[in-house]
Structures are given as structure tokens and as C-alpha cells.
Amino acid sequence: MPRDPSGVYTQPFPFVIDNTPIETAVYNGFTSDVVTDLNTPRPVVAGGTGANNAHDAMLAMGGEIAKQVVDNYGGFPFANGSFYSAPGATGAPTANGFVGTYYENADGSAASLQARDLATGTPYMKMKVAGVWDASWTEQAGGIVDLGGVYVDVLGDTMLGLLGLPAITPLANSAVRKDYVDALAAAVADAAVAVGGDTMTGFLTLHAAPDADMKAANKKYVDDAIAAPVAPPGLIVLVKTNPYTCVLSDANKCLQAPSGAFTIPSNASVPYPVGTCLTFVAWGGACTISIAGGDAMYLAGQATTGVRTLANTGVCTAVKQASAAWSISGPGLT
Asked: CB-based burial of residue 320 (10 Å sphere; 0-12 exposed, 13-18 middle, 19+ buried)?
């Protein structure tokens, strides 16, 4: 070989004495040595790269390799520099494509492998310590997927802390500082009515009469309401199917049935207030009216009690006089 292990070229044969014939072996050996040297990667010490391809040449010169194509993260011979992998590469953090960087120390016992998912932007990392790689990838913060927990979303979001703004005088559509709002609020405090309650020093003019219960009313609406005649409320008539036992909500109403039987419940079961009126109408046939539970129902003007009969088209009213006593009267009642 024309060069020793250190890459230094050594003349393969001794010098030939001037003006003397050259032996064939010496000549052929020398020219063969030159051919071998010229066709062998020239070492760095002799101005070469020591390699026969760009990748090995860059490594020999101490440079970084760009765009290393990784198809298997578990067995790829990484060199310092950048890399990428197509979707589905073996050992990748996810099934997506990745780009990243690899760097190691002088003897390769410690290294950092960082890869970013091209679909989500999520970064991942693997470390080699004392010659041993991490068993799995570690997801890092800062990817597109986890921006919602770290940054404010431009489409709308809720901050968990305060936002400091530099200028007190904002542009038309920019956020404003608290002191800016406080200054404006103080300036208009005497010219506005506080929502929590206030006293006006002038009249309040309403544009129209109110159309909902909780809206303010103007003077004309009130005056018109007072001037309008108020018709007395009519008696509410409830049509019932007999037999029927009265309930508490029937108090002071008219109960109508074509025929059958009405029963006023005892005070123990339905405690109507004293003074409650129950009006009964037989409309379509006679009906009976009784009281339950041992309470008394007196025929008005008499001391007799018991079941009463109301003739067809008859109307009568029972009035509660005491906790367990009613009186009843009306045309058609016997």
C-alpha cells in the first residue's frame, strides 16, 4: 500500500541511480502504487476527506449530516445533524411523518434525539445516557395539539391569569387597561344612572307603554289603567263527572255536573278555610250533595243535616261556617 495507517505516503521502492536502467518490477510496482493511491480515498492529513461518498466525507471532516432519511429509528446509524422520516417509519413516536435533529457527545455514549410530528406539530424526545437509550419517546410541550393549555386561542379563549397591556390609550379595536376604564367610568358617573339603584335629577321619558310585567310604565299608561272601568271577576265554572269529591282547589268555584253525586270532604282530609264557598249546579239531571267523615252540613235556616238533593237546573252554595260545619242553601235544593 502506498500509505501507512496514519495516512502518510511512503515511497514504495528505493531511489534508482541516475542514468541506470530501471528494473521492470520496480517500475511496474511504482506505477501500480500510484494508481492505487489515486483511486483510494485521500486521507485528511493529505488534503482529502478519507471517504468515497459525501456522507462519509462529511463525517470524516467533522461536519453535520443534513436530511438523513430514517426508516427504522431503532437501528438507524444516526450522525450529528438533521433527519426526516416518512409516515409509518419503524419506531417513530406516531404513524405520522417526522423531522428532527440528532446530536451526540465525542464518544457517542450520550445523545439527544428530537423529532417533531409533521401532522400535529407535537415534539418528542429520546435520550441516550451512558450508552443506553430511553425505552420510549417522551412527548414535549409546545405542539399544536397542546396549545389550548398553554396559549390563548386566536379564535377565542379564556385566560387563567392577568393580561398586562403597555399603553393606556388604545386603538379602536384593541384591549384596554383597567385604569383606562376606571377613568372613563369616573368621568361619566355623574351623568349615568347606576344599575344598582340611583336618583335621577330630571324626568325619564319612556318611548312606549310597557309590554311585559317587569318593564317600566309611563304616566299615560297608568292614568289610562286607572280611568278604565274594571269589571268584577266572574265565577269560575268547573264541569265535573259524577260522582265527584271536592278538592282544595275547588274553593270559591262553581261545580257543574249533569247528574250524580257531589261529596264535600271532611275537614280532616281537606281543611278548607272557614268562609270557603262551594257552588253546585245540576245541569242535565238531579244530583245529591253530601259531606264526609262525620262533619255536619246544615240546611240553611234549619237545624237538620244529611244528604241533600239538587233538582235539575238547581243552584246551591255551601258555606263553611266552622272547622267541621257547613251550611247549604239555594233554589231547587231539598
From this structure: buried
Q: What residues pair up with 254 in beta bridges, in sequence order?
A: 237, 279
Beta-carbon contacts of 84 under 8 Å, excluding residues fewer than 6 positions away, are: 67, 68, 69, 70, 97, 98, 99, 100
DSSP summary character for residue 215: S
φ, ψ of residue 272 in degrees (nearest 5): -60, 145
For residues 246 and 255, the answer to whether their CB atoms sit within 8 Å is yes
Q: For the residues 113-136, what does the mean pLDDT come to?
A: 95
Q: What kind of fold does domain 237-329 have according to CATH?
A: Jelly Rolls (2.60.120)
| pLDDT of 311 higher than 80 | yes
Q: Where is 309: in which H helix or E strand? A: strand 308-310
Judged by average pLDDT, the poorest of 36-50, 74-88, 173-187 is 36-50
Task: Give the global pTM.
Answer: 0.36
The H-assigned helical ranges of 136-280 are 178-188, 219-227
Q: Which of 92, 85, 49, 84 is nearest to 66 (CA)?
A: 84
Residues 316, 306: Cα–Cα separation, whole Å: 15
Q: Which of 278, 275, 233, 269 is nearest to 251 (CA)?
A: 278
- Can you give the residue ranges of every domain in the chain? 1-61, 64-139, 237-329
Rounded Cα gap, residues 93 and 100, in angstroms: 12
Cα angle 121, 125, 129; round to 5? 170
In this structure, are residues 29 and 12 in contact, taking their beta carbons and an 8 Å threshold? yes
Task: Classify residue 46 by its DSSP letter.
Answer: G
